Recover the amino acids of this structure.
């Protein structure tokens, strides 16, 4: 969905409006895409950690156990230097949402994300070469069936 560095810029852009918790980013992006895309926590939280390490965001006081992030002066500078890229990435999200509203691709995106997640989980632990070949065959068969639709 994002090119290298674009998620960082989108998160900075979202923080410009108000401080947010991690899941707030996920929900906001999902809302802007009308359910077509929601970044996984496994992508968002490491990106937030990276932004914090870079000094672009900081944790602020929060009610409850959730970490609340806010933009720092360095983060504002980074965003200003790359505002066009951040806004272009956000515009793509909104366009994806408009397209999703028009043709209702949400279930397909959800299924693709499920497939991606299960492949990452299973293939990382899979040591059996035959099992890997079986997974490849299943994926190839699914591709052939989709092509025939």
């Amino acid at each position: 969905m994002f090119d290298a560095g674009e998620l960082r810029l989108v998160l900075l852009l979202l923080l410009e409006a108000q401080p947010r918790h991690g899941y707030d980013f996920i929900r906001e992006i999902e809302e802007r895409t009308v359910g077509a895309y929601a970044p996984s926590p496994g992508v968002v939280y490491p990106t937030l950690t990276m932004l914090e390490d870079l000094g672009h965001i900081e944790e602020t006081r929060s009610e409850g156990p959730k970490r609340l992030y806010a933009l720092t002066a360095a983060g504002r500078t980074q965003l200003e230097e790359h505002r066009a890229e951040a806004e272009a990435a956000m515009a793509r999200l909104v366009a994806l949402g408009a397209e999703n509203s028009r043709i209702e691709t949400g279930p397909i995106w959800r299924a693709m994300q499920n497939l991606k997640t299960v492949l990452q989980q299973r293939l990382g632990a899979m040591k059996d070469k035959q099992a890997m070949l079986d997974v490849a065959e299943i994926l190839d068969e699914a591709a052939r069936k989709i092509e025939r639709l």
Q: What stands out?
A: Residues 90 and 143 are 30 Å apart (CA to CA). The chain has two domains: 1-104, 105-149.
